[in-house]
Inverse folding.
DNA sequence: CTACATGCAAAGAGTTTGCATCCGC
DNA sequence: GCGGATGCAAACTCTTTGCATGTAG
């Protein structure tokens, strides 16, 4: 289904008349490898590991570029950061474990009933499409709590 | 029910051994008058209108102080800002109209079923307690859309 | 009068921008 | 070779911090 993931975005960039630079490829790869939940800073760090010759400003500019042409999307998390992830995934939301930092995706179907009720009861048309829900994952909630 | 709202926080501040300064009162008033959804910058602007002699750093420090002693709470919104609001309200979430900026509160009861399903299906214990949901309010969604 | 709170200015983080250079096409 | 993309450094925004002064209790 998305086996051609590596070449497809390249084609899109070219098709729209933009240039396919090594930086853009590395940054796109970094976002893809991060599996959702990556901040500009994390992208920068990942890219640095491959090639130290990429500038921070380029990371910001390129993420914005990839967002504009629709290859990545953004979500906003509670600790006041923007995260980027690959576009084109089925609608989903994130569960973030505050203890082990693990990120799980949940289907949008779980959330849709909430949006439906908001629309029915308030007449409010929801645009928010990406929740970051924080808490404890099944594993970590079983651990003994540290004393207060 | 909350008719004594003005004096009660004063008492709390004094009781805990902190000083009741004009700045703290003005900043607390500003948060209360903003009815949820106020950023440090908005608080600063409100306070400035009453007395131009309040410093930005004091606003930050005081909001943090009010948070620590439990008089206000924070939520984090999608445009990457922290907002403050009076503590002690019943659990609720915000609907924010992206057109007219109006903020509506919805009861947590609407959201609880979602959290319940997440817990049942994923074993994930939700801690997030404050959603900011963006979209169009009943009024604004009826307006003709501007051409793209 | 004493210690906590404030004002001021400077320092930090994170992000954006102007401009010369580079390089994809 | 041309024009868009990058690197670099400076600017900008938002927030925090150190220190001297002010003031609530």
């Amino acid at each position: 289904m998305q086996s051609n993931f590596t070449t497809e975005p390249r084609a899109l960039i070219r098709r729209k008349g933009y240039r396919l630079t090594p930086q853009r490829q590395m940054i796109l790869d970094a976002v893809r490898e991060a599996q959702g939940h990556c901040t500009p800073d994390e992208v920068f760090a990942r890219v640095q590991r491959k090639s130290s010759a990429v500038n921070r400003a380029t990371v910001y500019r390129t993420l914005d570029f990839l967002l504009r042409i629709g290859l990545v999307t953004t979500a906003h998390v509670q600790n006041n950061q923007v995260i980027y992830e690959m576009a084109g995934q089925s609608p989903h939301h994130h569960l973030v474990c505050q203890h082990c930092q693990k990120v799980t995706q949940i289907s949008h179907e779980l959330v849709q009933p909430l949006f439906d009720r908001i629309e029915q009861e308030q007449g409010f048309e929801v645009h928010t499409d990406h929740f970051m829900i924080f808490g404890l994952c099944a594993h970590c909630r079983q651990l003994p709590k540290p004393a207060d």
In short: DSSP finds five helices and six strands in chain A. The two ends of chain A are 49 Å apart (CA to CA).
